[in-house]
Amino acid sequence: MNGNAFGAPLRIGADHPALPGHFPGDPVVPGVVLLRCVADALEQWRGERLHRFDAKFLAPLLPEQDATIELQDDGARIRFTVRRADTVLACGVLETAP
Length: 98
Known about the structure:
5 strands, single chain, 5-stranded antiparallel β-sheet, alpha+beta, Thiol Ester Dehydrase, Chain A
């Protein structure tokens, strides 16, 4: 990706501590875990911390599935997308800490 964009692989292991309570017997990766991964990708890319976000969750991510975090600088904001192949799992806008 160019300097205005960043991509990072994402895979949440079946042993992640948030999974047993998010839905027992049929685990789904919680949205807060996805957002933590997006915040980590932002810090890796820009060295900046997440301050605020607006997110939409569109499809579930299951444990052990491969996905990608995409960050795109859009001037005053940073847009993010979490994808599994061609399926958008989550998307939104980030603001960095002042």
